[in-house]
Amino acid sequence: AVHQYCRIGHYTYVGGMSGISLDVPPYVILSGTRNRMRISGINKIGLRRSGVSRENIAKLEQAFKIIFRSPQLLLKDALLKTIEEIPGCPEVETLVEFFQTSKRGVVKRTLDD
Predict the structure, then answer these.
(1) Per-domain residue ranges for the chain?
(2) Are 28 and 16 in contact (CB under 8 A)?
(3) Of 17-21, 31-35, 84-88, the least confident
(4) Sheet containing 38-42: order of strands
(5) Is 13-101 in CATH node 2.30.30.240?
């Protein structure tokens, strides 16, 4: 089930039986139940099928590592670092903007957490 005010980003793959109460970022794979939702990575297959270049998929993976796998950084600092290190990629800009405009909060747990 998805809460009525949650946003689910473009090209996101949501596993069955997932209970969603927070916004789900674009381009990711999400699975799990309400209290155990986890993002396992970038939805590379969906992105390739939709025509996103391999170069931009690699940039999204780099952004994913900065945002989701940098526990020493606050989210706002991780977003700034992402913008600085990966300029000129529309998909990365969309990902960062999604976080910046969330009103409910964004799922940020990964399988590593």
Answers:
(1) 13-101
(2) no
(3) 31-35
(4) 13-14, 28-31, 38-42
(5) no
d(CA 68, CA 98): 14
- Bridge partners of 14, per DSSP, are 30
Q: What is the DSSP string of the chain?
A: -B-TT--B-TT-EE-TT--B-SBB-TTEEEES-GGG-EEEEE-HHHHHHTT--HHHHHHHHHHHHHHHS-TTS-HHHHHHHHHHHSTT-HHHHHHHHHHHH-SS-B---BTT-
pTM of the model: 0.88
- Which amino acid is it at 96? V
Nearest to 27 by CA among 56, 55, 3: 56
